């Protein structure tokens, strides 16, 4: 890829991710975040909330697992134990457009609303068939939904669910206009190092197969940040995919954002002269040919070269074989 094209791709990817984080121009009415026990979606959710607060949007936090009201949240709704109908009514009451006489005034006076759901697993486990109704009832031109689904939490479906119905995660992935899959930067770095050394890739979390308590992410000298794998579905149906590194904010400053390919370990390898990976590297022996060697190679007569030139007049290929003294000629086999 030429430097100009690479720079354009890098800028376009960062601007697209920024647009999704800012929820500008209703870029994604339904954003699905997939996390694991090893790497939660908390930092990414907080970044959505902080940017929504800067845009003067009303922030609604629908809690199924969160005990305390997060920072910069305007309305905190406890959803556990409530029916889906009651939950939809409560959310819609806070995100209803401002009443006015004309549609133009409504578009001007209505405050944008960001709805954050900390876990979709309880809804998907209890009543998976109501997920389309839940999303369709609370999403409107002035409200955007950001919801989290825990990938490795066991999902026990009710007995009323037909075995031929799609899995709730499949249904959520189909309805979402943008999907963010978060993972640990430390784990991504260790996996990359194993690949570079042709070693077995390490397993994490439940895939380790260890008995006992799940330890989770370890603290210490580890790279800070998380890997965010973005997949945005455009209206044309084309999907745009890219991977980023989101660094946590410090001292009230915004979170750092960069492409995963800009990380030193994930960047294309370069030799001492600045050549990219795939170019001829310096070695102790010369892999090229001199002019004399090239001329000698062209003068070599290949085996059966005479047979190729004589038969090559449109008569097809033919094998010419001279029998030796040790060969046993069989007339019957020759007739066959």
Q: What is the share of helical residues?
A: 25-40%
Number of strands: 9
Tell me about the largest β-sheet: 9 strands, mixed
Number of helices: 11
* Terminal residue distance: 59 Å
Can you identify the CATH superfamily of the largest domain?
Answer: P-loop containing nucleotide triphosphate hydrolases
Structural class call reads alpha/beta
Strand order of the largest sheet: 3-2-4-5-1-6-7-8-9
Oligomer: single chain
Query: What do the pLDDT scores average to?
Result: 78
What's the number of domains?
2
CATH topology of the largest domain: Rossmann fold
Radius of gyration: 31 Å
Poorly predicted runs of 5 or more residues: 99-109, 271-281
Task: Provide structural commentary.
It is found in: Cytoplasm; Nucleus. Belongs to the ELP5 family. Residues 315-336 are annotated as: Disordered. InterPro entries: Elp5, P-loop_NTPase. The chain is of the alpha/beta class. It has two domains: 3-205 and 219-262, 3-Layer(aba) Sandwich (Rossmann fold), CATH 3.40.50; 291-335, no CATH class. The protein is 31% helix and 17% strand. It has eleven helices and nine strands. The protein has helices spanning 3-22, 42-54, 84-94, 103-109, 121-126, 131-138, 168-175, 185-196, 291-298, 305-311, 331-335, and strands at 30-35, 58-63, 75-78, 113-117, 143-150, 178-184, 226-233, 239-247, 256-259. The radius of gyration is 31 Å and the shape is elongated.
